[in-house]
Amino acid sequence: MSVGQGSTGVHAPPAGAQSAAGITYTTVDESYFEARRLKRHARVWSLWALGVGAVISGHYSGWNLGLTNGFGAMFFATIIIAVMYLGLTFSLAEMSPALPHTGGAYSFARTSMGPWAGYITGIAENIEFVLTPAVIVFFISSYLSAIFETAPAFQPVYWVLCYALFVGLNIIGVELSFKVTVGVTLAALAVLAFFYVSVLLSGQFAFSRWALNLGPDGAELPNGNGPFLPMGVGSILASLPFAVWLFLAIEQLPLAAEESHDPQNDMPKGIIAGILTLIASAFLVLFLNTGIAPGAAGLGKSGEPLLDGFRTLFGTDIAKILAAVAVIGLIASFHTIIFAFGRQIYSLSRAGYFPSFLSVTHGQRKTPHVALIAGAALGLLVMLIIWFAQGAEAGATVIGGTLLNMAVAGAMLAYFMQGMSYIVLKRKFPGLHRPYKSPFGIAGAVTCMVIAAVTLYFQLTDSVFQTAVIGVAIYYAVMMAYFLIIGRHKLILSPEEEFALTKGQAEYKTH
């Protein structure tokens, strides 16, 4: 089934919309949307896999860098960030079936607060979804280099091959894309489950000995049994950005609304099941991975914490096999976030915020192939510029650290705006049909906004993260200049725009 906007005829904005907030709409006919159709395929199982798969690589690596502040700091940071994501995901579970458009976060902000707020939110999410797979493919190439014993200079070849393969899978068709998503997500979870069971059955788990083996001076304690918060209460803030990696990108689910058979019923179930799965896995990996050698002191500096755990359990002789297994989790997230940036670019382009040619879909397969290729090219270009400008070693540091923290900063901005969208929608559209209502209500959205703001503030004030936040600011300046000069004069009455301009009265029709 293909999905389009409207029925037949010309699509023009309602009277008075042209001058609102300095915005100008371009009138288009049905052929515009005919060239931009999607197919419905996803159900609850696929949506659950899309959300979990996007995040799961963060349970393989990245989160552990927060252990440099001690286990207690990472533990409390994970609780705080889990609360933020509960507030976010339950708000999304209410908003996404009420506004079942591909635009997701942009759509919620556009309807509640206008086109400028929608664009600001869309750019924040664009930063997150374009840069995150770039960092993930860097980690994939690192693992592949170890497996095949290739020189560091060969890594860009792995990047190009991985992007080509998984963008290709996403272009071939939504059915194949979701089948791959379900398969790799289940495989990634199976690897984690095997690790958790292995730790519990090994007899090597010793929480006080390993998880508490970091002293107040940052040095390793040979016998463990150190303080729960060796760096003090303030260190919890320093671990917040790393705890985000355990959940980052679950919010992409609403982007699949127009490819879901029944978004009103399936979207809330998929989002809630996804976040509960991730919370359970996050605390298991935090306790079980840190509770065996090399413990918090070793894992805080590790690029492959899950592999370090496997080596402790089974020895180093099977390191290559374990590295190949670990790639599964990275592939799951890489593949699913490629899906996300394709739909995110597609939705903003279809509405005219980005150049409209980016939203053209494949004539036969009905996938946003232009948006997928453009997002991949942008992410790959950023990586190659850094790699060749700074050299392999320095480039690796920037790609592995700064770019991912740029993604986190973009995510925090998007979360703040989505929490605000929820609150405004509640007040401005009390009669809007909401198939699901968040049990946390406005309190959940406010909690999400506060934690996101605190995390972003810490990134801005801490020298470790400042480069990333400055990078986000530069990207924003460029994109806002584009919208001010060009984009705001070329908006189109897409489903998201029509819904907003008619205050939720426009029906979204399927063909």
Automatic annotation (TrEMBL):
Pfam families: AA_permease_2. Keywords: Cell membrane, Membrane, Transmembrane, Transmembrane helix. InterPro entries: AA/rel_permease1, APC_superfamily. GO terms for cellular component: plasma membrane. It comes from the Bacteria. It comes from Microvirga lotononidis. This is Amino acid transporter. The keyword 4Fe-4S does not apply. The chain crosses the membrane at residues 44-61, 73-95, 116-144, 156-174, 186-207, 227-250, 271-298, 318-341, 370-389, 395-417, 438-458, 464-485. It is found in: Cell membrane. It is a multi-pass membrane protein. The keyword Transmembrane helix applies. GO terms for molecular function: transmembrane transporter activity. PANTHER family: AMINO ACID TRANSPORTER-RELATED, MEMBRANE PROTEIN.
